[in-house]
Amino acid sequence: MAAxxxxxxxxxxxxxxxxxxxxxxxxxxxxGDPAEILGGLNATQQQVDAIRQQLGLNEPLWTQFGxxxxxxxxxxxxxxxxxxxxxxxxxxxxxxATLTVMVPILILDTLLAIxxxxxxxxxxxxxxxxxxxxxxxxxxxxSFLVYVIVGQYVFAFQLGLFxxxxxxxxxxxxxxxxxxxxxxxxVAVSLAPTTRLYRTFFLDEIGHDYVRTAxxxxxxxxxxxxxxxxxxxxxxxxxxxxxxxxGIFVGSFLIEVFFSIPGLGREILLAVNRSDYPVIxxxxxxxxxxxxxxxxxxxxxxxxxxxxxxxx
Length: 312
Prior knowledge:
CATH topology of the largest domain: MetI-like fold
Distance between the termini: 9 Å
Number of helices: 14
Helix content: over 70%
Shape: globular
Largest sheet: none
Number of domains: 2
Mean pLDDT: 84
Oligomer: single chain
Order of helices and strands: HHHHHHHHHHHHHH
Structural class: mainly alpha
Strand content: under 5%
CATH class of the largest domain: Mainly Alpha
CATH architecture of the largest domain: Orthogonal Bundle
C-alpha cells in the first residue's frame, strides 16, 4: 500500500505540471491583455505600459511561467483584480459557506439514493418500479431553476418555513436556518438520477451467478440484497460519489446566486464576468488538485470495500 501511495503521488507531479502549463498557455493565448483589462477603457497607453511592467508581462514567456509556478508553490496567488482581496484569503473565506451547503447535499443524496434504489430493485418489474421510473424521468426533465423558483415561492413566501435568501457568520445558524431550503431542493433534483443509476448497478449485480447460488442455498431476497449485492455494487457507487466529490469543494453557482450564499461558486461566476484572471487561474489549479486527491482516495476505498481489488 505504501509503495502504491508513493507511486501515485509521484505520478501526480507531471499531471499537475501539465495542468499548470495548459492553464498558463490558454490564458496567454485567449485571455486578452491583463494590463488593458486592469487599466480600464479610459487608461492611457502609458498607464497600460506601467501595469504591464508591474505584472512582469514584458518578460519572456518562460520567465512569466516561472513566476506563475512560484505563485503556485508558495500559495501566493496575488490579489483579485476586481476587489483587491488576496486570492488565498478569498478561497479561505468562501470555502466554509460552500461546504456548509454542499456536504449535506452529497451525504443526503447518497444515503437516500442507495436504499431507494435497492427498494426499487427489490420490486423490479412491478407497477411500483415502473411508476418510480416514470416519476424520476419527469423529475430529470425539469430544470433546476424551476425547482428553485417553485421552492422559494411555496416554502418561503407561502408557508414561511425558510428565509428566501441570506447568510450569517454562525455555522449553526446557517445549517439550521439558511441552508435547509437549498439543500432540500438540491437533494430533490439529484435524487432522481442517482436513484436510477444505483438501481442499474443493483440490477446488474442481481443478474450474476453468485445471486442465483445464494437463492439456491435458501437465502431470502432482502438478505441477498443487503449482504451480497450491496457490497459488490459499492465499487460503481463509490466511483459515482468520487465524480461528485470535487463538486462539494467548488459549490453550485446557481444555488449560491439564487440564495445569496457567499460561497466559491458565486465567487467564480463573478470572477468570470469580471475577467478576474488571478481568481480563475487559482480556481483551475485548485480543482485539478482536488480531483487528483479524490481519485487517489477513491482507489484506496476500492481496496477497503473489495479485498479482491489489487492496487498496482
